[in-house]
């Protein structure tokens, strides 16, 4: 069962003094916003820049008091009334909103108490009929005479692509963020000069490099966020068939115990109108252990292929600059199994791996470097296998346990999904044959060490007969750590983009009996499929011998060799 799967997740970026200052207005064409920094919420920074006439500010720092605005609404579009806090709008800074081509089409910074988005487009500006001012605001207005200040009205939304850049020029943005405390940063825009070819240089590359050097991006130095776990029994397949006077069945179970710590850093840059992301990168660092196993017990023959969810998806705190850039992570575990069997067998194989500060960048840079793949190692692995061979018996079984981190990336109205899979798999391939005539107990169990004894052969004789067992067994395990996407994202990557961090298959056990040897192909991939019913199971072949133990031991990591790639 899944006795303990822990996921420690955080997004991390360079944590230095940010430029967002609520006491200073954004009237120079550059404006920053920091997410509130707390222990249990996301944090990070968003900077926008353009001409002085393209960006403005409707906070108190720019001289404005918002009369009506919802701070709790999830809607990104709303009408607000506002009034300048001084009857000299030039001195107060209020006049900046209406300079140039006017307020409509400007990108404005919003007060923290007005909506949940940092920036909005002024879709419409007008003078409302309602000129009332609450006493709580009117008492703050500085007046040089008894004239009553004029209340303005704005329609705000995040439809940035509707802005005509010919009026005030383009507006660019850069974002980096985290879902842990301390990720606000001073974003350096000096290297960002428009739509350049992506090569992980400039802001995004520098941000990724700075993340690698953070104490919070080192599992030996940082405090882990609150983990979550699952504890359950997982059955991947269980079907039976009536074989009077008995019942034959095929059962596959997954037993797992794993600890996974993953830290994420992200950086992106682009422009508002028309909205486009010019550069994007995410860095992921992981440490942990996978201590799992798959058990199969087959007394029936047949074929099957099945894919099913085991756990989740479970949401993880998101990074959210509403209307501009959002990353929503989830964690899940899926299982896959396929088998084609014409024998009775009982097998348990471990899926045991350790990884320490493994690092992956998605998408990778032009050199094809994804990160440090040397952080993964196979651990001691238990293996138990027994069979009840008939006159001729064959079988192939593949099983996968796949913990996955899935990140829903939304940039304005455009989105994609990025996944990181840790695919731990096992495969058994065998072909057995009994020569002679016998169905009685074997004289002794067959045992073997691991791949080092693959070149030897053994003959197993059955009592009271001239029968012997011949054939070959091959058991492999492996780990495939890879990242990819499910849709195109501004031409930076698409559903065909694959980044491999680690992909190795290990020969756990290979043995041939009665001088038979063969080369067994290793195929760790299962076709992605929906939940499917197997073909009809059949009863075992008549005259099967009693169970023969082939191996029952813990295979030491030092004796396990990787299978050379073809």
Task: Give a short overview.
This protein has helices at residues 89-92, 135-138, 165-168, 202-212, and strands at residues 2-11, 30-34, 43-50, 55-57, 64-68, 78-84, 107-109, 119-126, 152-157, 171-178, 234-243, 246-271, 276-298, 302-315, 319-321, 325-342, 344-362, 371-372, 376-378, 381-388, 392-411, 414-435, 457-458, 460-461, 468-485, 498-513, 548-555, 561-562. With 566 residues, it is mainly beta.
- Would you tell me the structural class of the helices and strands? mainly beta
Integer count of domains: 2
| H/I helix tally | 4
> What kind of sheet is the major sheet?
12 strands, mixed
> How many strands appear in the DSSP assignment?
28
**Beta fraction of the residues?**
over 45%
> Averaging pLDDT over every residue, what do you get?
79
What separation lies between the terminal Cα atoms? 35 Å
Shape: elongated
Low-confidence stretches: 1-18, 195-199, 437-467, 515-534
**Rg, alpha carbons:** 32 Å
Helix content: under 10%
């Amino acid at each position: 069962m899944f006795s303990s799967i822990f996921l420690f997740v955080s997004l991390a970026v360079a944590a230095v003094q940010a430029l967002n200052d609520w006491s200073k207005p954004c009237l120079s064409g550059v404006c920053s916003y920091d997410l509130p920094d707390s222990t249990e919420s996301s944090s990070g920074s968003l900077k926008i820049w353009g001409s002085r006439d393209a960006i403005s500010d409707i906070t108190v720092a720019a001289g404005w008091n918002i009369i009506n605005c919802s701070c709790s609404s999830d809607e990104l579009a709303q009408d607000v009334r506002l009034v300048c806090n001084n009857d000299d709008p030039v001195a107060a800074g209020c006049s900046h909103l209406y300079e140039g081509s006017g307020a409509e089409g400007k990108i404005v910074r919003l007060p923290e108490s007005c909506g949940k988005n940092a920036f909005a487009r002024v879709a419409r500006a007008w003078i409302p009929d309602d000129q009332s001012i609450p006493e709580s605001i009117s008492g703050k207005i500085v007046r040089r005479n008894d004239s009553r200040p004029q209340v303005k009205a704005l329609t705000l939304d995040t439809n940035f692509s509707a802005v005509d850049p010919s009026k005030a020029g383009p507006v660019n943005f850069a974002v980096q963020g985290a879902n842990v405390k301390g990720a606000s940063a001073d974003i350096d825009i000096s290297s960002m000069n428009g739509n350049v070819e992506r090569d992980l240089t400039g802001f995004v590359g520098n941000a990724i490099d700075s993340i690698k050097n953070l104490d919070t991006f080192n599992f030996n130095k940082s405090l882990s966020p609150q983990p979550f776990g699952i504890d359950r029994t997982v059955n991947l397949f269980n079907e039976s068939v009536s074989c009077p006077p008995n019942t034959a069945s095929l059962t596959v179970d997954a037993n797992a115990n794993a600890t996974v710590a993953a830290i994420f850093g992200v950086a992106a840059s682009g422009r508002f109108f028309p909205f486009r992301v010019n550069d994007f990168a995410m860095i992921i660092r992981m440490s942990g252990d996978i201590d799992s196993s798959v058990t199969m017990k087959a007394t029936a023959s047949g074929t099957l292929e099945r894919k099913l969810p085991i756990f989740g998806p479970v949401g993880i705190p998101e990074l959210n600059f509403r209307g501009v850039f959002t990353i929503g992570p989830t964690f899940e575990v899926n299982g896959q199994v396929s088998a084609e069997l014409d024998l009775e067998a009982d097998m348990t194989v471990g899926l045991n791996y350790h990884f320490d500060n493994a690092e992956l960048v998605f998408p990778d840079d032009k050199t094809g470097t994804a990160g440090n793949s040397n952080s993964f190692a196979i651990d001691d692995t238990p293996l138990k296998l027994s069979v009840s061979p008939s006159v001729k018996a064959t079988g192939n079984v593949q099983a996968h346990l796949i913990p996955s981190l899935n990140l829903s990336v939304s940039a304005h109205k455009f989105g994609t999904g990025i996944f990181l899979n840790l695919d731990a798999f096992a495969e058994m391939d065998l072909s057995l044959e009994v020569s002679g005539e016998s169905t009685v107990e074997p004289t002794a169990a067959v045992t073997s060490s691991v791949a080092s004894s693959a070149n030897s052969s053994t003959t197993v004789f059955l009592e009271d007969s001239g029968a012997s067992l011949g054939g070959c067994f091959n058991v492999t395990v492996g780990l495939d750590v890879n990242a990819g996407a499910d849709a195109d994202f501004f031409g930076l990557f698409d559903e065909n983009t694959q980044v491999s961090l680690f992909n190795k298959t290990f020969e756990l056990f290979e043995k041939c009996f009665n001088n038979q040897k063969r080369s067994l192909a290793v195929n760790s991939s299962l076709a992605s499929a929906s939940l499917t019913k197997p073909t009809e199971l059949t009863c075992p072949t008549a005259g099967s011998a009693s169970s023969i133990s082939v191996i029952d031991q813990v295979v030491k990591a030092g004796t396990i060799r990787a299978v050379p790639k073809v």
